[in-house]
């Protein structure tokens, strides 16, 4: 395939995906042509799009930065792409870059839409940057303090990244709570303690919820101590959610707060923009602890089948990384 032709994954809700071919425009003076080495599926968001479970009111807010097509119809969606610059200003050629671009073999993007991958971050791990940015924003929203007892309910990618970041704070004790006992190895690798919901510690100073389930949210509320905050990171799409507010929610004066990566946390918005926040997220990907989140890599050609698998509730994959074999050579390395 020539550099002027690319293949991309299109989601066709509900529950269909296909690879399509497209022609690339010639890069302008302030644009780069990038050959993708790795991408990753953001399971929570992309499977909701794939399922057709995005509410109509959220069609525009749910747009990925370089999305093509419009919901509820077919869309080219995704936002975790690492590649090598093949054409553009000389200073950029040969660099690994991260871009909030969908799953596509080659693409053209403005210079100001990409960030160089730091030399101490393996390109294959850099695909975590978008999810890491969500975790960073969550910690800014929550403001954990020295010595806090923190619980994270839901040991998916976002929850695990939050737990890993919190575990590095001085004096902070982190418990990662999940119904899947196999996630205990994730907690151990990240420096946290694992617990099943019925064995989790109560009276916590701060609780993050990231399981995308009503049961998980109610567990998070149950774990929170008096006047504690529960930070909601899940996005339920059009799925209804029942929240148990008839128990200790009022008597313990709990706070349930949403955290969402679309805007910079008000705690940092006066000094940080999206670009600076994403650059920080990339730097944090230097931590080798986070390699534990990756499943066995999948090939780009298998993406339609991979999406079908990830959409099944029985699938326990954490971060699904995609390898672009048709673009791989010695410049695309792990």
From TrEMBL:
Keyword Oxidoreductase: yes
Calcium listed as a keyword: no
Cofactor(s) needed by this chain: Zn(2+)
InterPro entries: GroES-like_sf, NAD(P)-bd_dom_sf
Keywords assigned by UniProt, alphabetized: Metal-binding, Oxidoreductase, Zinc
GO molecular function: metal ion binding; oxidoreductase activity
Protein family membership: Belongs to the zinc-containing alcohol dehydrogenase family.
Name listed for the protein in its UniProt record: Putative dehydrogenase
Organism: Salinisphaera hydrothermalis (strain C41B8)
Top-level taxonomy: Bacteria, Pseudomonadati, Pseudomonadota, Gammaproteobacteria, Salinisphaerales
